[in-house]
Design brief:
Layout lengths: L22 E18 L2 E12 L11 E3 L3 E4 L13 H9 L17 H4 L3 E12 L5 E14 L6
Antiparallel strand pairs: 1-2, 1-5, 2-3, 2-4, 5-6
Length: 158
C-alpha cells in the first residue's frame, strides 16, 4: 500500500504578515530554489528563483524579510522539445550582472546556476507585486523581485 502522507491547507490566510512593498532595495542572496525540466508548452527549461533577504541597515522596517525572484529561465535543447536560444536572454543577463559569464560573454554555453555561485552576494533588487487570477477566480498577489545590480560579489567558498 502506498503512503501518500498528510497534506493540509490553512483555513485562514495570515493577513497580518508584513510584506515588502514595491520599490528598490539592497539585499543579500540567501537561498536558491531550482526546478529542473519544467515544461512550458513545447519548450523545456530549468527555473531558478533566488531568495533575497532585505538589508536591515539600509531598510530597518524590513529586517529579516525576504523576497523570492520572479524566476530566471534557462531553456534547454532536449529531444522532442522546441528550442530558441534567444529565450535565454534573461538568464544570460542574470549571469552577466552576477559576473558569472566568461570574459567577452557574447555567446556560448550558459552554465548551470548553483547556490554557492551567488550565496551572500549583496545586490540591488526591484520588488513588485505579481498579480493573477487563480483557477478559483480569486485574485492572487504577492511580492516578487528582479535583480538590478551586483553590489558585492559572493565570497569564494573554501
Amino acid at each position: 500500500m502506498v503512503d501518500y502522507g498528510d497534506a493540509y491547507y490553512p483555513l485562514y490566510e495570515d493577513n497580518d504578515k508584513k510584506i515588502v512593498p514595491s520599490g528598490r532595495y539592497t539585499a543579500m542572496i540567501t537561498d536558491l530554489s531550482i526546478s529542473e525540466n519544467v515544461i512550458f508548452g513545447d519548450y523545456i527549461a530549468d527555473v531558478f528563483k533566488p531568495e533575497y533577504t532585505i538589508d536591515k541597515k539600509e531598510h530597518p522596517p524590513y529586517d529579516g524579510y525576504s523576497v523570492i525572484d520572479n524566476g530566471i529561465f534557462r531553456y534547454k535543447k532536449i529531444d522532442n522539445c522546441l528550442y530558441e536560444h534567444r529565450k535565454n536572454w534573461g538568464y544570460a543577463q542574470f549571469l552577466s550582472i552576477m559576473e558569472l559569464r566568461k570574459e567577452g560573454g557574447e555567446g556560448g554555453q550558459l552554465p548551470f546556476l548553483h547556490l554557492n555561485d551567488i550565496k551572500n552576494a549583496t545586490v540591488l533588487i526591484d520588488v513588485f507585486m505579481k498579480k493573477f487570477t487563480n483557477d478559483l477566480d480569486s485574485e492572487i498577489s504577492y511580492p516578487v523581485a528582479r535583480l538590478i545590480q551586483l553590489e558585492n560579489k559572493a565570497p569564494v567558498p573554501f
